[in-house]
Amino acid sequence: MIRVELPAHLRTLAKSGKMVELEVEGTATQRAVLDALEATYPMLRGTIRDHVTQKRRPFVRFYACQEDLSHESPDAPLPDAVASGVEPFLIVGAIAGG
C-alpha cells in the first residue's frame, strides 16, 4: 500500500483526506502511483498530468524521502520507503508570483 499526500486543492476536488492509500501493481513508480491515483479519483485526471502528453503540470512537484523527484523519469522506481508505505509520496502545489 502506498501513501500519497495531496495538497489542499486536490483534496477538495477528490473529496478526500490529506493522505490517501493506493494499491499499486508491479514496481512503484511515479507513473504507477499517478495511474492508480487517477483510477481511484477520476476527477483528478488532467490536474496533475497533461491528458495527452502525461507530463507533470507546471507548478506541481513530487517529493519522497526529503528529495525532489519532480524531474526524475516517471518510470524510475520510487524509494523503498515509499514503496513499502513507510514514507509518503507527496504531491505539492508550487506557488509563484511577483
Give a description of the structure:
- By secondary structure, this protein is an alpha+beta fold.
- It has a single domain, classed as Ubiquitin-like (UB roll), CATH 3.10.20.30.
- The protein contains three helices and five strands; from the N terminus they run βαβαββαβ.
- The chain has helices at residues 8-14, 30-40, 80-83, and strands at residues 2-5, 19-22, 60-64, 67-68, 89-93.
- The chain has a five-stranded mixed β-sheet with strand order 2-1-5-3-4, with helices on one face.
- Strand 3 (60-64) and strand 4 form a beta hairpin.
- The longest helix has 11 residues, at 30-40.
- It is globular and about 40 Å long.
Which structural category do the helix and sheet elements fall into? alpha+beta
CATH architecture: Roll
Could you describe the largest sheet, including whether it forms a barrel? Answer: 5 strands, mixed
CATH superfamily: Beta-grasp domain
Q: Regarding CATH, which class?
A: Alpha Beta
Number of domains: 1
Order of helices and strands: EHEHEEHE
What fold name goes in the CATH topology slot?
A: Ubiquitin-like (UB roll)
Number of helical elements = 3
The radius of gyration over CA amounts to 12 Å
Helix content: 10-25%
Can you list the strand order of the major beta sheet? 2-1-5-3-4
Shape: globular
Strand residue percentage: 15-25%
Query: Which regions contain 5 or more consecutive residues with pLDDT less than 50?
Result: none
**Alpha-carbon distance between the termini?**
40 Å
